[in-house]
Structures are given as C-alpha cells and as structure tokens.
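Methods — Computational structure assignment.
A single polypeptide chain was analysed. Its primary sequence is given first, followed by the predicted tertiary structure written as structure tokens.
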Amino acid sequence: MKWAPGDCSTADIVRIKVGSIYHYGIFVSEDEVIQFGYPPAPEFADKNDPPVVCAVDIDTFCCGRIVERAELDRGERRKRFPPEKTVSLARSRLGEGGYNILHNNCEHFVNECVFGIKKSEQEEEVRRKWRLFAASGSHGKFRPDIEDKQDENGK
C-alpha cells in the first residue's frame, strides 16, 4: 500500500501524521470520516472519555494536517470489500469502544472495515523493533550491527 495526498473517494483509507505515528480513518465524504479514537484537535484534547469509533468532518479529522489516501495495488484492490460494505461496516461500529494502542487501534479498525483483517503495520513495526532490542542482549544499548545482520537475512 502506498500513500499520497489527493482527492478522496468514498471508502478510501485516509491518514494524517501525528508526531511520529499516523491516525487513520475511513473517508465517506467531506462531511464524514469514520475513525477509531478522537482526532488530534483542541476540542478533543481535554476529553476524558475512553476513545470510541466516531464520525467527524474532514477538517476536524485532519486538524490542518495533510491528508494522505491509500493507493491500493492490484492485489489489495481485489481483496478489499466494495465501498458500500466498507462504509456500512464502519458505520455499524459507531460508538464502539475497546481502544488499545497496540491491539485495537485506528489502523486495525480501517483494515478490518476495508479488508476484513485486523492489522496494524505500525504495531508490527513496534514489535519488530522490540524483538531486535531484546535479541541484542544489550540491556538498553542499541546494537545496529544486529539489526543490519537480521535485515540481511530477512528477519
């Protein structure tokens, strides 16, 4: 999956960069982006409620940041649900809770609505880095030689 700014279509996966991570949503229209968790907007900053699946307009979703849309390759386009089903699945989950940054986040949500698979590349990257750190045996000292060796072997 590649990412690029551009005009969004119904049921596109969209994302914005928030610090060093991305926040994801399902674009329905300029007036409706369905997301799991709250957008990084000032009006949500003091919200003490647990994150839920909610719908906001595109301006609230992006908070002035650049919106990127997923550009699916041929295989991904074949595997994705039709746009109507994606939107229906996303809307059916409005108000749902259970957010967990590692196991049930906004990226898991969009992949489940679009492909039927609960997946987060950000989570996988954190787990990969943690395995490298643990394998280094350095107890806090990062050893790039281990990462390089493992990358050469495809692990």
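Note: The chain has two domains: 2-118, 120-155.
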